[in-house]
Amino acid sequence: MGYIVLGVVVVLLVFGPQWYVRQTLHRHSAERKDLQGTGGELAEHLIGRFDLSGVSVAEGGVGEDFYDPKTKRISLSPGHYHGKSIAAVAVAAHEACHALQHKEQHKGFMRRQQRITMALWIERFSALALMLSPVLFIITRIPQSTLLTLVIGLTGLLASLWVQLMNLPVELDASFNKALPLLEEGYLAGQDIPNARKVLKAAAYTYVASAMASLLNIGRWITILRR
Fold it and tell me: Which alpha helices (H) appear in 104-205, and where do they start and end?
């Protein structure tokens, strides 16, 4: 019985945040003809308003809502780029505010980029080590070589988790210190602000969902290492 309860808790911790984010965005994605414009149009407007030089907006793939500081491009998924909904407007404002963080050289945002770069290198190195693990074992015939590569793989997952958790304050700043006050200026009616707040919370907590997924992978690696 105890294992069943533990399993349910793990499932809720890992998949609960992901479900929450998807459901929140879906719940507030209904088209609203009374809104001033689409998510893509709002992003373009904010680029001009804050003089975000070199920043562009493009339609991305499904689920591709992000700001890329290297290309200075705001990517919005089709529903958020073309849509006139609370979700589209709130997500567009959130991503545009990442571009604003970039312009302002927000310390957390700039450090986030450094952390992401470092984590990517660690993940690539750990993936390469895992790919070479069978070859190393064949060459050396040392069982410890396999253990070493597993530890390296675990290190890569921990690096990913670290980046995702450290990103959370930056996401919260983009949502609640920047995007929400902007929307309250008149981009949304007062009665729509509570729902926009929920969407902005979901946008910020996307990294929590990713972190929980990483925890699941880390748990798998720990199980392997204990065998």
Answer: 107-140, 143-172, 180-182, 193-204
Helices and strands (H, E) in the chain, number of each type: 9, 3
Of 108, 100, 209, whose CA–CA distance to 166 is shortest? 108
Residues 6+ apart with CB under 8 A from 25: 87, 91, 199, 202
Write the pLDDT tens digit of every residue in 103-138.
999 999 988 877 777 777 776 776 666 666 666 556
Q: How many residues does the chain have?
A: 227
Sheet containing strand 56-59, strands side by side: 56-59, 73-76, 66-68
Model pTM?
A: 0.78
Do β-strands 66-68 and 73-76 pair in parallel, antiparallel, or remain unpaired? antiparallel
Q: How far apart are CA 194 and CA 207, in angstroms?
A: 22
Structure tokens at 33: 């003809």
DSSP reduced 3-state for 74: strand
Buried b / exposed e along 127-160 (16+ C-beta atoms within 10 A): eebeeebeeeeeeeeeeebbeebbebbbbbbbbb
Amino acid letter, residue 189: A
Residue 196 Cα to chain centre, angstroms: 18
Read off the pLDDT of residues 70-99 as tens digits, 9 standing for 90 and up. Answer: 999 999 999 999 999 999 999 999 999 999
